[in-house]
Amino acid sequence: MLFDQPFYLSINEARWIVAQTILNEIKLQIDLSSCLDVGCGPGWFSQKLIDLGLSVTGIDGRLELVELARKRVEKAQFYCGDLESKNQISSFSAADLVFCFGLLYHTENPFRAIRNLYALTKKVLLIESIIIPGDNPIAWLVKEGQNETQGLTHYALIPSRTCTIQMLRVAGFKYVYEYNGEVNHEDFKATDTKHQRRRIFLASLVQLGVNNLVEVPEISTPKYNFSNKSTIS
Ligand SMILES: C[S@@+](CC[C@H](N)C(=O)[O-])C[C@H]1O[C@@H](n2cnc3c(N)ncnc32)[C@H](O)[C@@H]1O
């Protein structure tokens, strides 16, 4: 399956090196014991989170992946749930840490997804996503591929960086931090010909000081300016 292909595992390894460092630093500041791995797929990150000493529950919208994760990661609990459903998500207990890598950009309702992530978070949310380039707080509609790594409806609305940050804040996270350190994968690097594709954010209910995580200021979300006249005279 796609989740087991070398290209998939290499980005997992690169993301985990950073996630592990961040989580170890957070654990020195606050107690983290329970963890929800949302959009867990077959449980690759769930196993890593267990190895970090966390009590892990994985949630995924695909039952076949939940069943596979149960076989692969015996020490975690796995349940089927749609992050875009307020009703389904309300049946889960909140956890100290919510880990949500590789999911937001597969949702057709990213703001609902973020509000649901907030409802699941007791202390911190570590979230990684693809983001649409540009400074405006916008989202881009895409028709996705038809495989098991994608969204449940195969249509996704992918937010920009500022859109993601402000949705996290509006959902209720008092502190939003952006990771500005190195991730050893091309998706996290900007080049002369390519924008940075992915970013990592930490959204928290408590103030934290973590290396390479920079608190991001309030983003302005004014009404759209429909003027078609240039402001330059
Ligand atoms: C790209 S994979 C990410 C898997 C893993 N977290 C990682 O980063 O490698 C996206 C996962 O999210 C699941 N998923 C997609 N839409 C979802 C939704 N609305 N609610 C819950 N899970 C969803 C998919 O079934 C898939 O397992």
Describe the structure.
- There is one protein chain.
- The chain has 233 residues and is of the alpha/beta class.
- It has a single domain, classed as Vaccinia Virus protein VP39 (Rossmann fold, 3-Layer(aba) Sandwich), CATH 3.40.50.
- It contains 6 helices and 10 strands, in the order αβαβαβαβαβββαβββ.
- The strands form 2 sheets. An 8-stranded mixed sheet has the order 3-2-1-4-5-9-8-10, sandwiched between helices.
- Strand 1, helix 2 and strand 2 form a beta-alpha-beta unit.
- Helix 5 (110-120) crosses helix 6 (161-171).
- The longest helix is centred in the N-terminal third of the chain and has 22 residues, at 6-27.
- The radius of gyration is 18 Å and the shape is globular.
- The protein binds S-adenosylmethionine.
- S-adenosylmethionine (SAM) binds next to helix 2.
